[in-house]
Amino acid sequence: MFKMNQLAVGIFLFLSSLFSCQQKGDFQSMDVEDFDTLIQNEDIQRLDVRTLAEYSEGHIAKTININVMDDSFAAMADSLLQKDKPVAVYCRSGKRSKKAAAILSAKGYKVFDLDKGFNSWQEAGKETER
Q1: Whole-model pTM?
Q2: Around 116, how many Cα atoms within 13 Å sit in the side-chain half-sphere?
Q3: Residue 47: beta bridge partners?
Q4: Would you give the DSSP letter of residue 125?
Q5: Burial class (CB in 10 A: 0-12, 13-18, 19+), 83
Q6: Taking the CB of residue 26, how many other CB atoms lie within 10 A of it?
């Protein structure tokens, strides 16, 4: 009886891990300070995945803007980014950048995500440009 209970608990834990709300894709989410340290490296490609209107209102310096909600996001990323260099990606609050990070990591990019997005960057008083 005890073995059956262990088996049932093991199956339940396995299945719940498959359907939990964890990030999808092979990328690393980072807080503002770690993200800031990361992008100081010149080899890191910086990618803002918000709309052009959002990007125009302010962004992190030296970023490329590709709207992740655009149907051609993956194709545009392939034409503008280098697969041999890591990509630091962000959006407004972190939701769209996780979608972009999952897409890019599935295509073979090494991706780092700003966990709570541009909002957290601004709240931390980090430098932006227009």
Answers
A1: 0.81
A2: 10
A3: 64, 89
A4: T
A5: middle
A6: 14
> Residue written as tokens 């440009």?
129
Buried residues in 37-64 as b, exposed as e (16+ CB within 10 A)? ebbeeeebbbbbbbbeebbeeebbeebb
Contact 73, 67 (CB under 8 A): yes
- CATH superfamily for 28-129 is Rhodanese-like domain (3.40.250.10)
pLDDT tens track for 84-120: 999 999 999 999 999 999 999 999 999 999 999 999 9
* Per-residue confidence in pLDDT tens, the chain, 130 aa: 555 445 444 454 444 444 434 445 689 999 999 999 999 999 999 999 999 999 999 999 999 999 999 999 999 999 999 999 999 999 999 999 999 999 999 999 999 999 999 999 999 999 999 9
Amino acid, single-letter form, for residue 117: G
